[in-house]
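To whoever is on call:

I kicked off a structure prediction for a single chain this morning and the downstream step that reads the tokens threw a length-mismatch warning. I double-checked the sequence; it's 157 residues and nothing unusual in it as far as I can see. Pasting both halves so you can look.
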Amino acid sequence: MVARARIGFMARTPSPEHERLAALVGRWLTSGRTQVGAETGIEAVDTYEWLPGRFALLHTVDARVGEEPVEGAEIIGWDSARGTYVTQYFGSDGPNAYEATLRDEDGALVWRMRSATDRFTGTFSDKGDTIAGHWEQLDDEGIWRPWMDIILTRQPA
């Protein structure tokens, strides 16, 4: 520890923005439907867990969209320089990066994510045990169109 201090290492503690991510931690069963073309069912397990130090979350996805399996992993953290949460996702459905917010809006905790091509709004229930989510995609004319509606239900630990 002393050697680290001599080379400029400063220990940090998680900020309130980091701690706010605790609302997502846990195993969630996700169900829903796509809204593009023929409706397709969605069933998934989304797991959010702290990475060492509690500065970021690891989000793993194990899903089925219709008959298609979708698996992936995402890192979610706070970027203090940009004043926003940032995520990086890699999965069988391709990579994506998002900027996100997690804040109280009209008395409810709301998780919003946005990339260049899609965006998500998820509203937590009063107890924090469900999230009602809506995804949209940007079409070729620059209009946001409904993509998926999902419900995440937190499973007991």
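Update from on-call: the warning came from a stale cache, not from the record. Cleared it. Sanity check on the structure: The beta strands are 26-34, 41-50, 56-65, 68-79, 84-91, 96-105, 108-114, 118-124, 130-138, 144-154.
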